[in-house]
Structures are given as C-alpha cells and as structure tokens.
Amino acid sequence: MYVPQLDYLKSLFIVLMILFHLVYIGDSYPYAKEVVYTFHMPIFLILSGYLSSEKKAGKQFIGSIWWLFVPYAIMETGYVLGASFLPVREDIGELSLWMILKRVFIDPVGPYWYLHTLLVCRIVHYAIAKSVGDKSSPLSFLIALGICLWGISEGMNLVNFGYAMYFLIGIGIKKCKVEFLSIFQPSPWSIIPLVILCSRQENLLGLKLSGIVITYLAISLSLWAYPKLSERIKRTTYVIGRNTLILLLFSPLFTMLSRIYLPLFMFDPSGCCFALFTVTLTISGSFAIAWGMDKCGISQWFFGKEKVLSF
C-alpha cells in the first residue's frame, strides 16, 4: 500500500543532504551540518529497510541488486577519478586499478557510501530470509540478521555496523507487521527534546543512543508538519521522493559545479541565495539528466529499465 508520507520524508531529507553537501554552506553553518548529518542518512536507511522486500524470486532480486550496483559503481568510479585531479577533502590515495576496485567494492569515498551500505544490507537481508524462510520468529530473524551484519562489519569491514543497525530497525518494523506511521508518531512536542539534545555537541552522532533518539524526533516533527503543507507542495515532495536515487547519483555533479559560480553569490553572506539557487539547479539538473537518459535509451543500460524518471 502506497504511503505518501514516506515519499515526503525522502524528499525532505534528500534536500537536506544536497544542501549540506555544498561546501560553502557546510563551512558557514558547521553546527547545523553536524545536526543534519546525525539523522538524515539514518532516516534513509530506516526507510530502505522498511521498504525492502524478501519475497522476490532469486532472479528478480539479483536483477534489482545488479541494477543498483551498476549506476553506483559507475558514479563511484567517476568520483574517484575526478577526486584524483580535483581538490576534495577525502584522501583518495594513489590512482590505480586496485584503488578504484577497493573504493567500489570495499571502502567507498564521497557521497556514494550510502548505496554501498544499502547493497550490502539488502544482500545479507535477502540471504538470511531465504535461509530461514518463514520458520523463524521476527525476533530470531532480526538477531540472525544483526549478527551477520555485525560479522561483516567487524570481519570484513564492508559496512559501518552502527549505520547497518538503522537498516535493521526498518526491517524490524516491517517484519513485525507494524505500520511505519504508528511507530513514528507525529508531534509538535518533538521539537523540545530535539532542541535540547541537539544543543549539546556530544549528542550529535547517529551511532550513539542520543543519535537514535534525535533521528526518531526528526521523523516525528517532520510528520507533524506534513498535513500543514499545501497540496501543491505535497505533490512536489512526492515527485522528489520517488526520484531520490537519481538525486543521490547525480547531485554531486552539481554540488561540485557550484564552486565555479559561488563568487557570483558573495553579495549574500548568509548563503541563502546561493543555497536556494543550487538546490533548485541540482534537483532540476538531475531530473534533466535522467530525462535525457530515458529519451536516448541510456537508462536501459544504466538502470536496467526504459524509464527511470518517475512522476
């Protein structure tokens, strides 16, 4: 059953991701960036776990993983190659085939780590589901999945176990057959503990208990605001929410491009004009790329489908 609030949440937090991937905004508002980084990707992982399906046939599941891996691998490789020549904050290391393979399969750099984590979590989730079938209770299933994710984190260092736990939370909600909106209750009062927790920097880490609470409160407050939006704004958030993969993949092209025209916006020291222009450009530009790929038939080879842009 379609739940429009989920697309709304995805749209809200993908916009926050784009906003604080802008170096100028992140440097101008470092504390706000730290707050947003505490919850925005954990929320995506919760939603990804909740929306993951273990009912797919093997061939269908392999296809879905492959066509998530292909665009991820291409964009991560492009990021690594570009970062070898352009100034970035990550230490890429000496460019070589091994280094590229390591970044794609083991230790991604840049904004694509989320897709790498998602791929690993989905594969492990599906493998456990097919191994135990419907014989296990939700609790035993979650324990088995948690142990496997922990083992992969500790033994192979493929994922950060703290972030994988957010995916596990989403799986747990789905496995227990509980409605997402019944777990995350909308409330304007969420803002009080949210502000209190976010006022202390030591709480701003998604991998801590305080980070989990902040994540819950951010969802609760966002859902409270949802009914107050106009229908036009809601429809816009649905479109953005249905196309978050496109924005995850292509937004770095525009956030890097923004460094070129940043001097044109120095008349506004707050960075608001720069941020508004760049976020709008990033969303519309990413959609334009996807639309062009659909029209030229490239999406079939890049995403495994004739059309990737969804309205």
Q: Outline of this structure?
A:
This protein has 311 residues and is mostly helical.
Helix content: over 70%
Note the overall shape: globular
What Rg do the Cα atoms give?
20 Å
List the helices and strands in order.
HHHHHHHHHHHHHHH
* Number of DSSP E strands: 0
Assign the structural class, choosing from mainly alpha, mainly beta, alpha/beta, alpha+beta, or little secondary structure.
mainly alpha
Helix segment tally: 15
Beta-strand residue fraction: under 5%
Most strands sheet: none
Spans of at least 5 consecutive residues with low confidence? none
Mean pLDDT: 92
Distance between the termini: 18 Å
Please give a structural write-up.
With 311 residues, this protein is mainly alpha-helical. The chain has a domain at 56-155. Helix content is 71%, strand content 0%. The chain has 15 helices and no strands. The protein has helices spanning 4-20, 23-28, 30-51, 58-83, 97-105, 113-132, 138-156, 161-175, 180-183, 191-198, 209-225, 231-242, 244-261, 272-296, 299-302. It is globular, with a radius of gyration of 20 Å. It starts with a helix and ends in a 9-residue tail after the last helix.
Helix and strand arrangement:
Elements: H1 4-20, H2 23-28, H3 30-51, H4 58-83, H5 97-105, H6 113-132, H7 138-156, H8 161-175, H9 180-183, H10 191-198, H11 209-225, H12 231-242, H13 244-261, H14 272-296, H15 299-302
Helix pairs in contact: 1-3, 1-12, 1-13, 3-6, 3-8, 3-11, 4-5, 4-6, 6-7, 7-8, 10-11, 13-14
Task: Looking at this protein, list some descriptive labels.
311 residues, mainly alpha, 15 helices, globular
